[in-house]
Protein 1
Amino acid sequence: MREAGFNVRLLSAGPFVTMIDRFAVAPVLIPIAVEFRAPVGAVAIAATAYYFAYGLAQPFWGFASDRAGRIRIIRISLAATAAACTLTALAPNLDFLIGARILAGASVCAVLPSALVYIGDVIPFKTRQAVIADVLAAVAIGTAAGSLGGGFFARYLSWRLVFGVAAVIAAVLAVAMGRLPESNARPSTGGPIAQLRQAFHRPWARFLILFAIPEGAMVLGFLVYFAPALEATGTNAALAGLVVATYGAAVLAGTRVIKRFASRRGPRPHTWRPPVRPAPRWSRSPR
């Protein structure tokens, strides 16, 4: 049964703002290089370090959410994201910017996974797919908003503004999400190493991990450097951001299709069948 006080729009706002921070960097790499008078390759380290921290910090946040609670971890992560985005917007030099982006990557990575696990804790299976689709729609909109907003601000105002906006939204959400009820999931047993060992013993977990490697290379590699590649050919930052934003539009369309499909089809009922056992010998003996 869904817990009282659950608000999917408020929960979805967390992943939304983290996607703004995550995808705003693509169209602003060259404007940052121009402002700091640094090679684009050196500025790209900020993006690489961000995604490296994003991946390494996720297991830590997962273990923490099992013990401290999903909503508490989301709020802590959003508060840290607000601080990291503020430092990014105020960065006086490239080294400071790289440090701020490392902090941002290690902060934002907790929000979306914790939100999805929270949904699994509080939403019944028969309606869970539709709620997840709504959260992923917010992810898609945040992806498009980050790419488009980063390019627009870099072109007409300053690349710093998109991170300032993300900082304000994250700070507001860190407070507002206190209205969401905490889930009552049982804490996981065993330490972090034991939990990782249990996960790797599951075939589906191994498949998803292996599948995520090329998917991550595509999303975090190609999309991040596609916008600077366009800008290197003379395309302005706003147009480059718009091109990358089409990825978010495609994800949004896909989530709407999946939600409609899931609502029509619904979960398959599980029917129990007794095990088939061979008849005893006396029943097969000739009369």
Protein 2
Amino acid sequence: MSKNVKQGSADREPATATVRTGSGGIGRAIRLLDLVVSEGPLRFAELLELSAIPKGTLHRLLNELADERLIQFDERSHTWSAAYRILEMANRIWTRSDIRVLAQDQLMALKALSGETVQIAILADTHVVVIDHVESTRSVRHSITVGSRMPVYCTGTGKVLLAWCDDEQQRDIISRISFSRFTPNTITDKTALLKELSTVSQRGFAIDAEERFLGSHCIAAPVVDSTGRAIAGLSITAPAFRISEEELISWGPELIAAAAEISRRLAPRTGETNGASH
């Protein structure tokens, strides 16, 4: 979870200082990529000021990084941000990451409880990306793969990741969402989403009521870091014909407890956790 687990400035300064000593193209490109990933979205003028890279060189490096799908330009906001290839590369690391190892038995326990597909996902700008899952063995089931990418506004994990992030980040993400209606139940505007996030925050879990796929609904809870901000969303997804929304909600206490246990296990890496209070 290196993107979401914030390290102290003391931990970052040596690496930054090392990069800045290099005047070569690779050093500048790495420094620029790190800046976009850690501070983005950023406008060109902001990048020019923060990077201290000459204007012409900055233009060239931005275009080269965009050609490699490492960063992307948003035409609406005129800002640069990390692109999906960063997540593709990070996903290879997830196979050895702490959170997958520490969460595995909790995913298995929730699957045993529900008999349904259980997954854990992280925030990826205006989307979520699945980093691990345990699939139901039933003939009709929700099937998903590691690396699957879905919008934040119409998924249970997306909602908890939005509800448990800081206000500035939440506003920024929501301002850049391009809403689409996938089903009659999909939230398609900012006002409705903010109202839903308030409800999610108050009750401690989120429901995807057939908002992404008709016939499939889920319940999700946040895995949080030492500041109480979500670093992952843990969810159970089931076919609506087999599991009613009431039964889905009945799994809430066990789901919240499992997410809290994963948060507790991550505490030595992120600091003592405050739980999922918000």
Protein 3
Amino acid sequence: MENRTYTADAEPGESVTVAGWVHEIRDLGGIAFLILRDTTGKIQIKFEKDEMDDDLVETGLNVARESVISATGAVEEEPRAPTGVEITPDAVEVVAEADTELPLDPSGKVDAELSTRLDNRTLDLRKEEVQAIFAIRAEIQHAAREQFRELDCTEINTPKIVATGTEGGTELFPITYFGEEAFMNQSPQLFKQLIAGSNVERVFEIGPIFRAEEHNTPRHLNEATSIDFEGAFCDQHEAMDVAEAVVTAAYEAVNENCAEELDALGLAEEFEVPTGEFPRLSYEEAIE
């Protein structure tokens, strides 16, 4: 959208156009407030009914929650507003109107069953705590990639449709591949070994894996994201050094860049970056 300003960047004294989702509407009689939400936060839009055009007020206050709108107007300081500023609109446009009856409450004030959340994932993803998970996940992957690159690793992307399994002890998802039997890959193990042994030496992949394992918990391996490393001329200690560096880098990045997300998930106080060397056990010690 041309000339759009994110809510977090709206400064007093400016005339801006903001766009996002209608988070909440509070009608107090002669004055009403619409809270607009975008990816950077929220901003208050003020409607003084007796001083504004009736059509403008009707457009802004009759729109359903979670509708997409844009609003243009002057930004003013307002200490009582959620972010310390508010917009007095000159124009409001409804870009996409939402149903008045939503299947779940994106604000999270009313809980919904898991099946309802999954059936209406677009709405569910608008919750602050759900978006926090995506932000932390993205930060982990970014930090892992940066650490692998510092360790002179080359990122690879291996096939996910294969003719045979690469690991024993796990069930495979069978598929039909142009009339032939094939499977969803449960690990990049064989491919990364081939590439590491082809003079590339150190490789890593962050990608999906598929395992046909029955489960009865919210954590399972049917479809997961795996962080894999393979290195030529690496013994077990060097491989553990790499794994330790990547895990530590991920924790450090989340600690530095995801404070708001950790708070949204109620993890801010208990989250700690690992310090010191990780304990290492031999195979015999682990078995014992």
Protein 4
Amino acid sequence: MEKMMTIPPHRARKSLGQNFLTDPSIAQKIVDFLDPAIPKETPLIEIGPGKGILTRALLNKTSNLILLEKDNTLIPDLTERFGTIPGVRIIRADALDYPFGEGDAYQSPPFSGGDYRIVSNLPYNISVPLLFRFLSTPKPPLEMVLMFQREVARRIVASTGSDDYGHLSVAMALSASARKVLDLKPGSFYPAPKVHSSVVLIQPRIFESDGEREQIRNALTLSRKLFSYRRRTLQNALQLAFPETPKSDFEEIINLSGLSPAKRVERLLPEEFHLISMTMQET
């Protein structure tokens, strides 16, 4: 049985949210959630490879691996261990600024404008902004296997009406399919975080047109505004979110949507946010 990985001396940088996975058997479980039907030559991006424990497991899953690392102090070790392996590219970059699915870099090898996948033990301090970035790019990845703080993972997969249900839940339901596949204790990392972690498998939605994508974007803008008043009724929340709009306009919008004005925001289904948004655009 594989034992915990011994982490070489490296002061984890709190500002980068660094908590290195240490158990090779867990790393293998994580990469095994990747869809085996997707061709191995499909580019696979690992964000924040750190000490390379996930990287080692990913080598058997792809022949086209891109390691995206922001911490320049980790680049020499990654280069020494993986830089000469065919099909592995090491790029020093900030994932928040990297052009996923767009721009000249995406149109050039190894992507060449085609499909790609993402795997990452995400830095928890930027995990949600990164997730929204992945989903909003013109060409989202085919699939993502991502690690989050457990509370964030619960919000991602939450059902309508639950305590964890909110804007993030709506955004995921309208933009992708997601399921939590693995929970991890703090002791699986070095340094051990103060929170538990969860791995989520995400398959972004394929939009038929730019117009459809724009409709979802509008629905998410509405969701974000209304969840500022999550316990208010739909009628009241709309008036608070859009104070410049006459009350009679919202009465018409709600009536045309076929919803009850007394329904609370936290009880609205993801598709109902979409419906309200569409109705607002049409009236």
